[in-house]
Amino acid sequence: MSSQPSHPSLLIPGPIEISDEVSQAMGHYAQSHVGQPFVNTFGETLTQLRQLFQTSNPKSQPFVLAGSGTLGWDLVAANLVEPGEDVLVLHTGYFADSFADCLSIYGAKPTQLKAPIGDRPQLPEIEAALKEKKYKALTVTHVDTSTGVLSQIQALSDLIRRVSPDTLLVVDGVCSVGGEEIHFDNMAIDVCLTASQKAIGCPPGLSITMVSEKAMDVFKSRKSPPGSYYASFKNWLPIMQNYEANKPSYFATPPTQLVQALNTSLKSILSNPISDRFAQHKKVSDYVKSKVKELGLKELASDPANAAHTMTAIYLPEGLTPPEILPKLMSRGVIFAGGLHKEIAAKYIRFGHMGVSITDESRGEVDKALNALKEGLAEVQQAKGQ
Amino acid sequence: MSSQPSHPSLLIPGPIEISDEVSQAMGHYAQSHVGQPFVNTFGETLTQLRQLFQTSNPKSQPFVLAGSGTLGWDLVAANLVEPGEDVLVLHTGYFADSFADCLSIYGAKPTQLKAPIGDRPQLPEIEAALKEKKYKALTVTHVDTSTGVLSQIQALSDLIRRVSPDTLLVVDGVCSVGGEEIHFDNMAIDVCLTASQKAIGCPPGLSITMVSEKAMDVFKSRKSPPGSYYASFKNWLPIMQNYEANKPSYFATPPTQLVQALNTSLKSILSNPISDRFAQHKKVSDYVKSKVKELGLKELASDPANAAHTMTAIYLPEGLTPPEILPKLMSRGVIFAGGLHKEIAAKYIRFGHMGVSITDESRGEVDKALNALKEGLAEVQQAKGQ
Fold it and tell me: Which parts of the sequence bind substrate (chains A, B) (predicted)?
């Protein structure tokens, strides 16, 4: 039996449902942040993250900070780019605009490469842009939570290595890590930033980042000091290294219960081959998308090849809006999210399918959600006499 | 019966023991950060904070962010001080050095006024400093967690209003809010920053700040943009205002479970007059200090008038070190902290007495700790043949 009280199924693109074990870990009794039991747990968690991101280079550096996913942008902007340097920002929705804003605050010069809604910038135009100017970094949203568009990390990486090998590849993996295939080493990623509350299956409150050896070298050779105090690699690097060596260390108090929850979730994730986890997310995503099509609904993603496997953004039938349909889902025990992309927010809804809701099929949440969507649409359309 | 497994009593100056209700709130099921149930909880929590800080000015602005207490310094440095402006930093230990570092990162020019260890800067020297130069802000650590020294906020505030009324009074209340007397309005405080894991009685992971109307006006009239993205008032102000008006809003995902825990803790704190809570902290602190004296031990605080009520920093007998005594306490189910002030870290220990461990006397944790200290010291001294 679940230890959590009965509640609607949270099927938005994060936060997501958490397992009973993770929920229990959140209620962990108070621990000293510098006492050996917690130090060992945090150390193990950092090592687990190496496995999750699939990096075996000991000089790859994990960071786990109290913060929202957004804090990962500050980590990149304040540590890896110096004032005046150019950054190429691939735009697939809401989050590129915000990342660009963040870069500007710290003095970088972002150039956005925008794709039409539902699409992603194409390799030839990215190649042309990279040849035009020297970019310190290229940022890409792996899964754009606002549109459900998936970007191709391997192809991007290949392009960068060929055309502009000094450019750092920065992957915003907030809605992808733990659900979409990421192989930090093989894909030659320099930064992959994420948050705890998406496909990793934890409550929100942790900013989680993996940084490559190359990016750490870039950081170490920067001329200006980091542009942030709380988000400074300089302040956190010795702390993370000490914790991973099971040595107590202090810069700011880590959120001990959230780290316990992350440790618990990662233990569960890593108890099976990570490739099985990616395959399960893909299988369920394909199923959801086929059912959405059966309902006569259209995805935002313009092509199956650029559709995420952790979520589906779905256009509503002409004339229907999220405030009409979402309560019908809620009355059936299902929570979806409304639109987030400013230009079309009133026209679509978002269904997050990641973590325990899809790895534990006995929960039956995916079919419950699809049925709720079908019935809810019918109810609204009937009421409107359509 | 407690819902938390048996564990050693965490009596360090934060994180502290949490109540069963708070622990259960941490295990709250997943909620949408923009769904009405959580929006209402967050809104209520922000209003509760007005009561905790004792401000009735509707233009005082609470901020609750995912982050460690340290993030509060970035909030001040990135939003309220502009590059090149002077800040007077009152030094009572470790934390002033760090706050000064943070201010420098964002371009401010901190001037430290240092007191001897165990003491605090005196009003006449502060007055002289304020007359010498125009300071944008003065920062003071209300309770310095590294030394247990208490600063006098009311007297400081009176001085500032008299000598340099434009200077913002910034109180680092990380180890004080919820335990030491703070009256935001009466004391004319401009910023009071704190964290969740000290006298507020929550797990770590939340940065909590109250900002005065005057300070918000200073922010709104700044010439340069805020120096941080994640810690920007510009990004968070509309979010906090919307949540408090029970309207969904999004900049970055708040840590929903930690907010539930904070709401639960504040509900308990505010169910009794806040003055009773301060009195209870004072009563237990006086008791601890009298017992420490009975044991022949000396406090770091040079005078009872500048000793905190939320913690006690205790010099060990000559020749004894924290690594010798702390395990003896641990074997008796009590966790104290070692020294933190670099110059004397090996000579003292720290006892945090705040929150549920002292408001719920039936837990018996204070006497358990004092007995463990007495027995532990005797054991070490016997083993050393002293």
Answer: 350
